[in-house]
Design brief:
Its main location: endoplasmic reticulum. The chain is mainly alpha-helical and about 210 residues long. The protein has helices at about 1-5, 10-15, 20-25, 30-50, 55-80, 95-120, 125-140, 145-165, 165-190, 200-205. The radius of gyration is 25 Å and the shape is extended.
């Protein structure tokens, strides 16, 4: 009894960061959730159904925004009105360093994978990367990039709230599915993957 009470699951809201974004994704702030859904649907309809070019649309919106801000600033100086409420357009060194650290980790990971394939001749990694790239290519052939991003917004606005509502039932089904996947991967690893040479480069070095 005591152990069952001490073990606490992390809530979906905490898993999403516990901030305003989590409130929007869990529909606790209806205004933000509806705004995100309507705006993403409008952009998807504009770019996919209406056939507008995203680059030209963004350029037109930025051009209109720059013109409005310019005339707003000029009229504010002439009529002694407040300037446009624009924050300081400056990127801090801390944010640059944090972004650089994240990019460095991903770049080093990609380079290590490339090293395993190109230098070490790791056929197992090559098969995994090829399967992943084929899956991305297959998904890309089914829909455009804009549709793919729009589906991501729809899933972000539906999956967390459904998981929060039916968390216990979904966790039970996921545990069963994970066992099935683990057993299937274990059999695949024993039958196929273990027979693939891990590194031709290491064999060459040993022979030398």
């Amino acid at each position: 009894m005591g152990d069952s009470h001490t073990i606490r699951r992390i809530s979906v809201h905490q898993a999403l960061g516990g901030g305003s974004l989590a409130d929007v994704l869990l529909w606790r702030k209806w205004g933000g959730s509806v705004l995100l859904l309507v705006s993403s649907t409008f952009l998807w309809f504009l770019f996919v159904r209406a056939g507008h070019n995203p680059l030209s649309f963004v350029s037109s919106v930025l051009l209109l925004l720059v013109i409005v801000l310019f005339f707003w600033a000029k009229s504010a100086n002439l009529l002694n009105r407040p300037l446009p409420p624009i924050p300081d357009l400056e990127v801090s060194e801390k944010s640059i360093e944090q972004a650089a650290d994240v990019i460095r980790v991903w770049v080093n990971h990609a380079l290590s994978i490339a090293h395993e394939i190109a230098v070490c001749g790791n056929l197992r990694v090559l098969v995994q990367v090829a399967a992943l790239l084929w899956l991305i290519s297959f998904v890309g052939s089914l829909c455009s990039f804009v549709t793919f991003v729009y589906l991501g917004f729809l899933l972000a606005l539906s999956v967390p709230v459904l998981y929060e509502k039916y968390q216990n039932q979904i966790d039970d089904k996921l545990c069963v599915a994970c066992r099935v996947v683990e057993n299937g991967y274990r059999k695949l690893d024993q039958v196929v993957l273990r027979k693939i040479p891990v590194s031709l480069y290491k064999k060459k070095k040993k022979s030398q």
